[in-house]
Each structure stands twice: as structure tokens, then as C-alpha cells.
Design goal:
Strand content: 25-35%
CATH class of the largest domain: Alpha Beta
Distance between the termini: 49 Å
Number of helices: 12
CATH superfamily of the largest domain: FAD/NAD(P)-binding domain
Helix content: 25-40%
Structural class: alpha/beta
Radius of gyration: 21 Å
Order of helices and strands: EHEEHEEEEHEEEEEEEEHEHEHHHHHHH
Shape: globular
């Protein structure tokens, strides 16, 4: 590789956000010289991303549809006192398909995988061997900034793609099976039927800590499968992680922590649903913003993505309030009651919630009535100012 390489746009981080921007540029701005830089060997890492039809604007669906590996015409949510089938169409993107589609769309030499950047600035990327990329603009999409600046709970999980000895019998996903024992906060099992005898099973917790005991969670997945009468022949793939559930914090401080003056995307930009942690819809919107820019200069990129992220943060104070209700008002073993009550509401409201597009009426309906948590604790949680570990305040509630 030459010591200095020039391009119009350098994207650092080939995960979901960075990969989508690169893919969108290849489709909508093929004239631009784009480089996608990823420390790992594959684009997209080792993940499954899911979304509802209503999460993605019609104009952006052509970008996402080629990535979809599985699709279902509805899903189930199961709770101790309530079971429900919902008709929202549900999709899953797998990282292996994401890698194939992005690689096929980008020109030869546009992907630099296995290359870890040690320095990222608004117009340059530097590697350990001294080589560098010089660009009109750089987008940093390498993952989170300084999470200590946010007040967080955690959605942590272990997921396994299982091959079963016989068909599992599921036709649709189970987005939440909260009939399981409530351990370490709100616990549920997430099921995606990838084939008659293939099933993605994820053991998930809305927990106060990000710690994951991999062996304990794997044992619980095995026990859950046995309880359902499924015999596991093989575990083909495994992923684990901890997504932040945002209760409050200082957006501007968090943005600066990811690199002052550098354009950002994905979790590094704070672009994820405060309650679910999902970042795919925001990543699609960010890709649209970048491809719509007339120029890709560092200042233009920074202003456009910062303004989008700041506006998005400001609009989502309601979800951070609900997160404080979940983590501060509900006892850990009783958190499931909040979700059980939520899933009794109108299906269109549920769809808008997942898309982070709740209306004023939706918000009033969610908060109406006696909360399924101690009233005193609910009032304290609702009045909280969202101070993070650093003392930073949430200015947008």
C-alpha cells in the first residue's frame, strides 16, 4: 500500500453504521472515491440486526432490502399474564450477508479490512505502520465514545445460532419470551426461526451492570431449549454484547469524547434508540444524510451529522424518562410488568415506539393510569434529572 492515499470520503469502522454509509455512497454517489476502513477481517462483525417495516422510510428501503436474510409476517410477545401475536412484518440482517453485499457493491480496493487506525482526524486517518489516508472528510464509526458521560442501564445478551435435531415448529419470531425466570433484572428470551431446524436463541437482560457470565447464559439457553423439547445438535455461531439503555447524560460531552471536530456515525454519535439500543434505523437515516450532501468536506460532514444526532437526542427525552421508570422505579424482578403492560397497548403504538416515532397521544397513553411500579418510586424516577456518573445533566428532557 502506498504511504499516502487520497480519497473523497474515509469511513473508519466497517460495522453497521459505517458499512451502510459506504453502501449508500456506492449506490447513490458512485462518482465519489470512498474508502471503508475496518480493523477486523469482515464487514459487520458477528451480529444479527432486526427491524420492522415501519422502522425504515419507504425511500430508504432499496438500500436495506438487499441485506435482508430472513423475513416474517409477524411476531409474538409472551409474558406471565399476557400473550400476544402482532402482525408487523419483521426482518433480520445477518453479518455474513451484510459483508457479502457491501463487498460486492464497493469498487476493488475500496475496503481496507484488517487495518486498525491509530489516529483519526477530520481529514486524515493514520495507521501504525505510518501509512495514512488523506480525505476531504472522515467519518468515525468505530463504536461508542466515553459511555461514562451517559447515565446507563444495560441490555446485555448472549445469542446462539442453533442447529436442532428436529424441527422447532416456530413460524414467527418471539421478540420477547418473558415467561422465563426473572434473573439479573428484566430477563427474556428472543427467538428467530432461520429454518425448520435452525433457530437463533438469545438470552437477554435489562440489567444494572454490563457484566456477562457467558457460561451461565449458555447454560440457560440450553435449559430453555430442553424445556421447549428441542435437542441441540450444534451451535454454529455465538455473539454477545451489552447495549446501553440511556437514562440521561450530556450529549455534547459525549459527542466530543469521540473526537472533537470529527464527524461521527452510529453509536459513537449517540445514534441509537434509548430504550432498545437498536441503531439500524438511525444508521440508515445517517447514510441518507451523507449521500445527500453536495460536498464531503470535513466541516460539512461534521455539521450535518452533529446536527442530526443532536436533534435526534433532543427528540428522545420521553424514552429516557421511560428508561428511568424501568431501572429506577421498578424492582429488578418486577421490571417485566412494565413491558407486559406496554404490550397490551394498540399495535400501531407499539410500532411507533420501536421506530422512536411516538406521537403525543402515544406518550400520554403509555403514561396513563396507575403505573405497574410503586407510585413513590415512579414519581422520583420521573422527576430525576438524569445525572450521569460524571455529573453531566440531561438537558433535553
Amino acid at each position: 500500500m502506498e504511504r499516502v492515499r487520497q480519497c473523497d470520503l474515509a469511513i473508519v469502522g466497517g460495522g453497521l453504521a459505517g458499512g451502510l454509509i459506504a453502501l449508500a455512497m456506492a449506490k447513490r454517489r458512485p462518482d465519489a472515491r470512498v474508502l471503508l476502513i475496518e480493523a477486523g477481517e469482515t464487514i459487520g462483525g458477528n451480529h444479527v440486526w432486526s427491524f420492522f417495516d415501519s422502522d425504515i422510510a419507504p425511500a430508504d428501503r432499496p438500500l436495506v432490502v438487499p441485506l435482508v436474510a430472513h423475513m416474517w409476517d409477524g411476531y409474538h410477545a409472551l409474558f406471565p399474564g399476557h400473550r400476544r401475536k402482532l402482525d408487523a412484518r419483521y426482518h433480520a440482517i445477518t453479518s455474513d450477508k451484510f459483508d457479502r453485499v457491501v463487498r460486492a457493491a464497493l469498487p476493488a480496493g475500496a475496503i481496507l479490512s484488517g487495518r486498525k487506525a491509530i489516529g483519526v482526524g477530520p481529514r486524515a486517518v493514520v495507521f501504525a505502520d505510518g501509512t495514512r489516508i488523506e480525505a476531504a472528510g472522515v467519518i468515525d464509526a468505530r463504536g461508542s465514545g466515553d459511555l461514562s458521560l451517559l447515565d446507563l442501564g444495560w441490555q446485555k445478551f448472549l445469542g446462539q445460532e442453533l442447529v436442532l435435531a428436529a424441527p422447532h415448529g416456530l413460524r414467527r419470531p418471539v421478540v420477547m419470551d418473558a415467561t422465563v425466570d426473572q434473573i439479573d433484572g428484566y430477563r427474556f428470551v428472543y427467538l428467530l426461526p432461520f429454518g425448520p431446524d435452525r433457530l437463533f436463541v438469545e438470552d437477554t437482560y435489562y440489567s444494572d451492570t454490563p457484566d456477562i457470565d457467558r457460561d451461565a447464559l449458555a447454560a440457560r439457553i440450553a435449559a430453555y431449549a430442553a424445556l421447549r423439547g428441542w435437542t441441540i445438535s450444534d451451535v454454529e455461531r455465538e455473539e454477545r454484547g451489552a447495549l446501553g439503555v440511556v437514562l440521561g447524560g450530556d450529549f455534547e460531552a459525549y459527542w466530543r469524547s469521540g473526537g472533537a471536530g470529527v464527524a461521527k456515525a452510529g453509536v459513537r454519535a449517540g445514534l441509537f434508540h434509548p430504550t432498545t439500543g437498536y441503531s439500524l434505523p438511525d444508521a440508515v437515516r445517517a447514510a441518507r444524510i451523507v449521500t445527500d450532501l453536495r460536498d464531503l468536506s470535513a466541516d460539512t460532514l461534521h455539521h450535518a451529522l452533529h446536527d442530526f444526532a443532536a436533534k435526534t437526542w433532543a427528540e428522545r427525552g420521553f424514552y429516557r424518562l421511560l428508561d428511568r421508570m424501568l431501572f429506577r422505579a421498578a424492582l429488578p424482578e418486577e421490571r417485566y410488568r412494565i413491558l407486559e403492560r406496554f404490550y397490551r397497548l394498540d399495535e400501531s403504538l407499539v410500532r411507533r415506539f420501536y421506530a422512536a416515532q411516538s406521537t403525543g397521544m402515544d406518550k400520554a397513553r403509555i403514561l396513563a393510569g396507575r403505573p405497574p411500579v410503586p407510585v413513590g418510586r415512579a414519581v422520583i424516577a420521573m422527576m430525576g434529572n438524569g445525572a450521569g456518573k460524571s455529573g453531566a445533566k440531561d438537558k433535553h428532557l
